[in-house]
Design brief:
The protein has 101 residues and is mostly helical. The chain has one domain. The chain has four helices and no strands. Helix 2 packs antiparallel against helix 3. The protein is elongated.
Length: 101
């Protein structure tokens, strides 16, 4: 049994969500850098590494903030998506019904 499997399902869900959002944010950061690297030609390597470090810290905080509400709400027995099929379907349905614009 791996160490990851020893964590409760909620914690595993949170870790997976944080990891996936970090990958997505890093991908967006790489695209942003590729599009605008010509404007930063005078930047030195330590400046770029510092900017990457600061961006990583910001992205990690944002990922944790995104992950925190579902984890906190899952402690309510009726909203626990790890044990209740109705709660799981509600969480997925609420995400599908969001209207933007």
């Amino acid at each position: 049994m791996s160490i990851f499997q020893r964590f409760p399902k909620r914690i595993r869900f949170g870790l997976i969500v944080v990891f996936m959002t970090m990958i997505l944010f890093t991908f967006f950061r790489i695209i942003f850098w590729a599009l605008f690297r010509s404007t930063a030609e005078e930047a030195t390597a330590p400046d770029l590494f510092h900017a990457i470090y600061l961006g990583f810290k910001f992205d990690l905080r944002l990922s944790l903030v995104i992950c925190l509400p579902p984890l906190i709400l899952s402690w309510i027995p009726g909203l626990n998506f790890t044990r209740s099929l109705i709660a799981r379907r509600t969480w997925v349905a609420k995400g599908r019904n969001l209207k933007f614009g």
